Amino acid sequence: MSNVFFISDHHFGHRHIIDFESRPFADVDEMDAYMIEKWNAVVGPQDKVFHLGDFSFLNKEKTKRIVEQLHGYKYLIMGNHDRGRTRSWWLDAGFDEVSEFPIIYQNFFILSHEPMYMNKHMPLVNIHGHIHGQKYESAQYLNVSVEHWDYKPIEFAFITNKVVPSEEQ
């Protein structure tokens, strides 16, 4: 049986993100290798990963080499830093599916790069990235930026246990 995972904001090849987000790496080579290792430690070859944007700052050849190393079926929802490239560029770089827009997953989760406006009456949860180490204090938002999860994709089962209210409540 395959599992589903979510993650965002790797910024592969982006040396300035180390300082911007106080990432604990000496350089981008160390950061990129660590993030690939963390991904593959939890994601199996048959699993599906939704990457919620800002994947790589590298050229297509180097990006493709990283994508090829990562386990699973990879679905990119383009982030603000991914938009300088076309959907077909990302497909050529190795993603299995690419969306330029947020998507609804299982009729309850809005998957987007940037957090979306959610009023308290909306019966949905926004799984997002973009804001890195920050997060909203609301059960309607879950930030899956790498900084919150030790650079590992988060399993959907964990998310549903965390954000979907049980009937006993």
Characterise the protein shown here:
Residues 4-130 form the Calcineurin-like phosphoesterase domain. The chain has 169 residues and is an alpha/beta fold. The protein has one domain: 4-Layer Sandwich (Purple Acid Phosphatase, chain A, domain 2). 26% of the residues lie in helices and 18% in strands. The strands form two sheets. A five-stranded mixed beta sheet has the order 4-3-2-1-9. 34% of the residues are buried.
Helix content: 25-40%
**Succession of helices and strands:** EHHEHEHEEEEEEH
Query: Structural class given helices, strands, pairing?
Result: alpha/beta
CATH class: Alpha Beta
CATH superfamily: Metallo-dependent phosphatases
Largest sheet: 5 strands, mixed
- Parts with pLDDT < 50 across at least 5 consecutive residues: none
Looking at the overall shape, the CATH architecture is: 4-Layer Sandwich
Overall domain count: 1
Rg calc: 15 Å
Termini Cα gap: 30 Å
For the largest sheet, list the strands in their spatial order.
4-3-2-1-9
Number of strands: 9
Oligomer: single chain
Arithmetic mean of pLDDT: 92
Beta-strand content bin: 15-25%
Compute the number of helices: 5
Protein name: Metallophosphoesterase
InterPro entries: Calcineurin-like_PHP, Metallo-depent_PP-like
Domain Calcineurin-like phosphoesterase: 4-130
